[in-house]
């Protein structure tokens, strides 16, 4: 997968071509500083290791807060739970006081970059696809309360994990677009059309963007929401934690994705399939 220089003349065109081909695009030289990401990883690592996580146990109705390894997701079509714990950050939700300023700064920064990337997607959509969008794509996420920042912690492997369980089983994202700074450890893979799994270029500092089901729906399948997963580390790497920070961009609830679906109706259908609601 080719890495795209955000500052290059033809960045938009190259980036969107990559999204069309693989569902993924990888940017370097982008506006999100790696020092900021590094600081977030180390501050949240402290929270996951020593924080009073149960005090922030997730609210089932609102879905903000901490999700432990015991209640972690099981990907669609899989039996074993993923080996991960995570925290759902929403600007309107509960956030540990000492982590709040930094993480909300990141949320804003990444959301605004997402608007620009959606403008690229729109600009390089063929006219027959662009005319399907019910409003400009970057408009769909403006002032949305639905965008979710997930701070993920994959704990070191203890050796007693359920047979077949991995850090994140193969899945597609439900949302419009996902923005994911490279994690502090490898493991992220994307599935090609041939079925083969490919490592996503994950040098620290890279920014990984992938298409979610809602953009696939809005583009009538032109942009593919591709399967990806996080595999388990082996050997001495098994004792290392992994932290990652996907921002799941969601349109406002009433936004029309297609003739069949608004953001809200689409999300409900998908959550029902997952057995979450
Ligand atoms: O941890 C990662 O690198 C990817 C996580 C992911 O795909 C997800 O949470 O949807
Ligand atoms: Fe994902």
UniProtKB/TrEMBL annotation:
Keywords: Ethylene biosynthesis, Iron, Metal-binding, Oxidoreductase. It catalyses: 2-oxoglutarate + O2 + 2 H(+) = ethene + 3 CO2 + H2O; L-arginine + 2-oxoglutarate + O2 = guanidine + L-glutamate 5-semialdehyde + succinate + CO2. Its cofactor is Fe(2+). The keyword Electron transport does not apply. It is an enzyme of class 1 (oxidoreductase). Residues 144-251 form the Fe2OG dioxygenase domain. It comes from the Bacteria. InterPro entries: DIOX_N, IPNS-like_FE2OG_OXY, IPNS-like_sf, Iron_ascorbate_oxido_reductase, Oxoglu/Fe-dep_dioxygenase_dom. Belongs to the iron/ascorbate-dependent oxidoreductase family. This is 2-oxoglutarate-dependent ethylene/succinate-forming enzyme. It comes from Thalassotalea psychrophila. The lineage of its organism: Bacteria, Pseudomonadati, Pseudomonadota, Gammaproteobacteria, Alteromonadales.
């Amino acid at each position: 997968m080719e890495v795209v220089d955000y500052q290059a003349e033809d960045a938009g065109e190259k980036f969107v071509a990559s999204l069309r081909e693989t569902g993924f695009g990888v940017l370097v030289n982008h506006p999100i500083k790696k020092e900021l990401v590094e600081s977030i990883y180390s501050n949240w690592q402290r929270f996951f290791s020593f924080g009073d996580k149960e005090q922030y146990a997730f609210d089932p109705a609102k879905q903000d807060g901490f999700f432990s390894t015991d209640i972690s997701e099981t990907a669609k079509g899989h039996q074993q739970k993923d080996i991960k714990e995570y925290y759902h950050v929403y600007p309107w939700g509960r956030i540990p006081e000492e982590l709040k300023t930094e993480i909300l700064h990141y949320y804003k920064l990444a959301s605004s970059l997402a608007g620009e990337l959606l403008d690229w997607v729109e600009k390089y959509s063929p006219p027959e696809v662009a005319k399907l969008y019910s409003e400009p794509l970057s408009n769909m996420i403006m002032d949305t309360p639905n965008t979710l920042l997930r701070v993920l912690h994959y704990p070191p492997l203890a050796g007693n994990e359920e047979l077949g369980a991995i850090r994140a089983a193969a899945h597609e994202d439900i949302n419009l677009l996902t923005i994911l700074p490279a994690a502090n450890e490898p493991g992220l893979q994307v599935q090609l059309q041939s079925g083969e799994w490919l490592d996503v270029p994950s040098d620290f500092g890279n920014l990984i963007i992938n298409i979610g089901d809602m953009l696939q729906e809005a583009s009538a399948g032109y942009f593919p929401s591709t399967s990806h997963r996080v595999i388990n580390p082996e050997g001495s790497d098994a004792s290392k934690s992994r932290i990652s920070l996907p921002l799941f961009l969601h349109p406002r609830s009433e936004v029309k994705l297609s003739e069949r679906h608004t953001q809200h109706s689409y999300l409900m259908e998908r959550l029902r399939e997952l057995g979450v609601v």
